[in-house]
Amino acid sequence: MSFERYRGVIPEFGKFLEYASRPEPVTIRVRSGRIEPDALVERMARQGFVLRPIPDQAGFLRVQSAPKPIALTLEHWLGLFYVQRASTGLAAPALAPKPGERVLDMCAAPGGKTTHLADLMEDRGPLVAVDSNVGRMRALAGNVYRTGHTNVLMVTADGRELPGGAGFDRVLVDAPCSAEGTVREGRGRVRPRSEGYESYVTALQEGLLRRAIELTRPGGAILYSTCTFAPEENEAIVDAVLADMPVDVIPLHLPAPSSPGLTEFEGRRFDERLVDTARIYPHQLDSGGLFLALLRRRGTIDDGAVTSASSHDAGWTPIPRADAPDGAGDQLDSEAELKLDSIRQILKEVWCVEPSALDGVGWMLRNDRMWAHGCGEWPFDAWAGRGAWDSVAVGLRAFSFDSGGLPRPSNDLLRWLGESVTGRGVDLSLESWRRLLSGVAVEVEGVTDGYVALRLDGMPIGRGFVRSGRVRHEIPRVHARSLATILS
Q: For residue 238, which of 186, 273, 289, 285 has the smallest C-alpha distance?
């Protein structure tokens, strides 16, 4: 694909072409709350990695040199960082969600921006992460669980068909696009698109943005984002909604070099306010391309300007103790209370987890599994019976129950709790881990039969089970294979 059509648009066009043909530097975002950036830099340096902070992008580090791909490390497997393009790391801070707010990510998979939003929210308040593709939803779930975010409500749906009835404070529309901004992955080449792709994708983008505005409460913010340079997918989409929807452009002041949005391209004029949107080109941040437009929905909560989102709290209800089918609520609530009492006792007395480590965590019994969440509330009661959507997850899978009814902590929970788990642990050497992951039971001394946290260098890696002085891991097979590769 030729970029000649952008010669009069992109500043320093020759430099743009030069960077577009270069490999893109690898950058990572530190998972806040799990490890400090300096501690991660030091930990990775012991393995031969050289990481440098990216100026004005909190928690982002550039890999200067590496003995191997940084994703093939235990730190990545534990969710201590997310491999993420520096340019895309500008999106979540531009939307600026606050802890406790109600946030919607309409095109969430595979989860880079979703987990960044959750970081900024400090895992407090509902973050509804939506994607229409079941396969991509699995990738989203894997990244949310790996990084240990408890406030994400995952939903499979077409964002254009999400029900109303609950207004969001902030909405991200990271729309599907022609992905010209990922040009560096192909060393200057972008995969060609079919003849009808532009009309398909622009209709999709506009539909998503319009629905996002409808679902945003008065005074709330919407961020429209793509990783393409095409004005047809960027300014033209925003121009269309500015013409007939109750939104205004909020000027963007990014902490990184960028260019203003276009008000004219190839003879077509756009709303003058689009100068306050932002374009990021590969040579400006030594990263990928990005377009960002921040919008504010007009009105105040009390002015009656909208129907579906006119009341700030309308449609939002506390997450129940049990997700019960009609008619089974009281019975399941009682069952949930009994199971939760058992879990609290085991966490405190067996796993020696201090109650303070679980401050702000809610619990929910769902599909015979106990979930730990920091959402507090959800819109699902308002959405019930409306639209084609399916709730996939409520926070983190925390406990299942074995055939004897004994609570069994999930691998995700043990990794999330980390060093808070001081009881029922088995510390294994690197060689013991390799044997364990090859399918061999490892001998342990002084450990009674039952579930244990398996550790490496003091960090819980996953769950095991001890029987007669020998332990086997209970890490899912696909994750165990990844871990075996990392530790080989």
A: 273
107 is catalytic: no
pLDDT given for residue 305 in this prediction: 38
Q: CA 452 to CA 473: how far, in whole Å? A: 9
pLDDT one-digit tens code per residue, 361-390:
999 999 889 999 999 999 999 999 998 999
What is the rounded average pLDDT for all residues in the chain? 93
Residues in the chain, total: 488
Write a three-state SS string for the chain: CCCHHHCCCCCCHHHHHHHHCCCCCCEEEECCCCCCHHHHHHHHHCCCCEEEECCCCCCEEEEEECCCCCCCCHHHHCCCEEECCCCHHHHHHHHCCCCCCCEEECCCCCCHHHHHHHHHCCCCCCEEEEECCHHHHHHHHHHHHHHCCCCEEEEEECHHHCCCCCCEEEEEEECCCCCHHHHHHHCCCCCCCCCCHHHHHHHHHHHHHHHHHHHEEEEEEEEEEECCCCHHHCHHHHHHHHHHCCEEEECCCCCCCCEECCCEECCEECCHHHHHCEEECHHHHCCCCEEEEEEEECCCCCCCCCCCCCCCCCCCEECCCECCCCCCHHHHHHHHHHHHHHHHHHHHHCCCCCHHHHCCCEEEEECCEEEEECCCEECHHHHCCCCCEEEEEECEEEEEECCCCCEEECHHHHHHHHHHCCCCEEECCHHHHHHHHCCCCEECCCCCCEEEEEEECCEEEEEEEEECCEEEECCCHHHHHHHHHHHC
Tell me the CA distances in angstroms from 118 to 100, 139, 167, 192, 429, one per residue in order: 11, 16, 19, 34, 34
Catalytic residue among 177, 227, 352, 375: 227
Q: 324 falls in which pLDDT band (50, 70, 90)?
A: low
Which amino acid, 123? Answer: D
Arithmetic mean of pLDDT, 215-220 = 98
CB atoms within 10 A of CB 1: 14
Q: How many CA atoms lie within 13 A of 133 on its CB side?
A: 10
pLDDT at 114 over 70: yes
Domains of the chain, earliest start first: 25-84 (3.30.70.1170), 424-488 (2.30.130.60)
Residue 301 has pLDDT above 80, yes or no: no
User: How many whole angstroms separate alpha carbon 147 and alpha carbon 149?
Assistant: 6
